[in-house]
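Morning run. Coffee first, then this:
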Amino acid sequence: MMNSFEEFQKLNKDNMDMAMESFGSMSKGFQAIAAEVADYQKKSFEEGTAAVEKLVASKSLDKAFEAQAEYVKNSYEGFVGEMTKIGEMVSDISKDAYKPYEGVLGKVAK
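And here it is:
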């Protein structure tokens, strides 16, 4: 009877350790994503400000349209690149969060 209780306690401790390791890696990953988004927002704001300055400084309507088109193109490319990067980061988070459970799930599958 005592042996079963000790095994139960060890199992609970192991499960808690796995969960804490998983949550820790998820937390670090989400912090990295938050930092990446903040950097992107700052960069995007600076680029937008520069584009408005360039637009206001345009001497002709053609130059204004050119400046606007360049800004839209660069913004779109930057956004797509950033979303791709964040998607990869989310994928890495899920892989890291799953790692503690690999051994346990491998035993259960057998």
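The chain has a mean pLDDT of 88. Good start to the day.
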